[in-house]
Amino acid sequence: MVDVEVDGVTVAGILRGVTVSVGGGEVHGIVGPNGSGKSTTLRCVYRALQPTGGVVRLGGRPLAELTVRESAREMAALTQDSHVEFDFTVAEVVAMGRLPHQTGFDGETREDREICASALSRMDAAHLSGRSFLSLSGGERQRVLIARALAQEPNVLVLDEPTNHLDISHQLAVLALVRGLGITVLTVLHDLNLAAAYCDRLHVMDDGLVVVSGKPEDVLTPDVLLEVFRVKAHVVPHPVSGVPQLLFEHRL
Ligand SMILES: Nc1ncnc2c1ncn2[C@@H]1O[C@H](COP(=O)(O)OP(=O)(O)OP(=O)(O)O)[C@@H](O)[C@H]1O
């Protein structure tokens, strides 16, 4: 199990000392209003951005000590900037997830192909394999990009709004699958009810800082919702699972 530590990370003008510790095998969510710094925090973890201060550690080792290839073998990311600009097929996009595991000359093996096929079918996207990625719908693209991250067989998964574009059935399926992987997960989620249901711990960000961290029931309180998100909410236990769920007061 590989843990992730975001330790006092600053990014000039955006993050003001963000600390998030994700224990090996745990699923942690980052929530917060628009512009609070969630994606920027993740970008520091998946190495798209170099923090101006603080350190990110993967399995206890500062990212700066790992080559990009070493960290890509450990960690996969679904990002807000996961663009595919050229007209690759779905199978080709998912096969990119295997690149960190291949050495210069050996190319794609049968095992690589099997891993990719399995990742696609777990994302309910096997039927899309031969399609042009650019011809897919938003939700289909999202599922293929998650399949690419799974094909990387990571020990750590970093997800920026994985449920974006997904219908409710696929939202629930993807989050259940992610939980069931048994690996370390750090995910940004906008849907607080899904965050409460699927995350072991939540970190609430506001204005470039983590303002509260803990178990969903300790974090998603009416006070926090009013102070951070500026909404009035009632917390009720889910009638089946018992996890805290939020009912928002409508603004009419
Ligand atoms: N490259 C950049 N240059 C200038 N400002 C930036 C840059 N990247 C992000 N920001 C600003 O930093 C703040 C935090 O952005 P970030 O994308 O991390 O927020 P977020 O919490 O993920 O928001 P959202 O919920 O809207 O996705 C925002 O005000 C954003 O405009």
TrEMBL record:
Residues 4-232 form the ABC transporter domain. Gene3D superfamilies: P-loop containing nucleotide triphosphate hydrolases. One of its GO terms (molecular function) is ATP hydrolysis activity. InterPro entries: AAA+_ATPase, ABC_transporter-like_ATP-bd, ABC_transporter-like_CS, P-loop_NTPase. Keywords: ATP-binding, Nucleotide-binding, Transport. PROSITE patterns: ABC_TRANSPORTER_1 (PS00211), ABC_TRANSPORTER_2 (PS50893). This is ABC-type iron transporter, ATPase subunit. It comes from Saccharothrix espanaensis (strain ATCC 51144 / DSM 44229 / JCM 9112 / NBRC 15066 / NRRL 15764).
